[in-house]
Design brief:
With 324 residues, the chain is of the alpha+beta class. Helix content is 36%, strand content 18%.
């Protein structure tokens, strides 16, 4: 069965902007020491390479080695995209981070950002109804709540938020199905960075609200990049999963890890796996290795989530609005 995702919207307007946050985030790379990994060729004909940089001695090399171990494993099939920042050690890693994927439910974080920006622009607080919808959308990945907010916001406002956020390669589906928005790991990391540092797009109150919702995701949806996270970190996570007929599973996980000396974000997007557990397994293998490397000691890791039962269907009953 092919799953399509609500809701229809019209028009497409392209714009470009570089926010202060994007410039600040880019500075992580300026002072970084590159790892020895080969760069991706400009013509795109070579296989993607792991590219890590860090000001911390040996960290980029270790991350490069560990990420390569997973992405080059015979058990890792389909397509995997990775993006990582750690502000504390000025570390960055990417692997095929510009590849486009169907967003599935990761688009819900974009919807939240657009809603919070609208509230700021209108100089008001969230209404009770908006808080209820946002809570359902993020903490339980509720599709009906997402559709309601998507329609209320409208595609022009959502695109304006993407422009302000500097997410230049995130493209809503031309037929208006929100879960088929095209995303990549680089833009998703930009969004995580937006929620975790002072910027001109979202004020401190909006960012705190968003991070609080991402910290309250229900237990059955807290798999993915939190696997192996240090027990002292505050975890903010959102996952997405979607089965496409003839194209396998899209399984994604994004997260931020804050407090007690932690300040990093991790995005892992996967497409074309034969099953959802296969995609989750790749994400959690990568996450576990990355958390260990960033935190220097396996003893610091305390979350292993793959034992949880996982859904065997897409994230909700995803059908066009016209079919409802």
């Amino acid at each position: 069965m092919t799953h399509r995702i609500c809701t229809r919207a019209g028009g497409l307007r392209r714009a470009s902007a570089v926010t202060a946050l994007t410039a600040a985030f880019s500075s992580i790379l300026v002072a970084a020491v590159p790892a020895t990994a080969a760069q991706v060729s400009a013509n795109g004909r070579t296989a993607p390479q792991v590219v890590c940089t860090s000001t911390k001695s040996g960290l980029a090399e270790q991350l490069t080695k560990d990420i390569r171990t997973v992405v080059n494993s015979p058990n890792t099939q389909g397509h995997t995209s990775i993006a990582l920042y750690d502000r504390t050690s000025k570390t960055s890693c990417t692997y095929d981070a510009d590849r486009q994927h169907d967003s599935a439910s990761l688009v819900k974080v974009i919807v939240l950002g657009a809603l919070l920006r609208q509230v700021q622009d209108e100089h008001r607080e969230l209404t009770r109804a908006e808080r209820t919808l946002a809570t359902k959308m993020i903490t339980a990945s509720d599709n009906d709540a997402t559709t309601t907010l998507w329609k209320r916001l409208g595609l022009p406002r959502i695109k304006e938020f993407l422009r302000l956020a500097g997410m230049k390669h995130t493209v809503p589906d031309p037929d208006g199905y929100w879960g088929l928005t095209q995303i990549n790991a680089s833009d998703q990391l930009t969004l995580i960075a937006l929620f975790t540092a002072t910027n001109s797009v979202l004020d401190n109150s909006s960012r705190a609200y968003a991070l609080d919702l991402l910290n309250q995701v229900i237990p059955t949806q807290r798999w993915g990049v939190p696997a192996g996270a240090p027990s002292g970190a505050r975890v903010h996570v959102k996952n997405g999963w979607l089965q496409r007929t003839g194209g396998g599973w899209r399984v994604h996980s994004v997260g931020a890890f804050t407090e007690r000396g932690h300040d990093y974000g991790l995005v892992v997007l996967t497409s074309d796996h034969a099953s959802m557990p296969a995609g989750v397994g790749v994400i959690e293998n990568l996450a576990h290795k990355i958390h260990v490397d960033l935190n220097e000691s396996p003893a610091a890791t305390g979350r292993t989530l793959r034992s949880q039962s996982l859904p065997d269907t897409s994230d909700g009953s995803l059908v066009p609005e016209s079919d409802r």
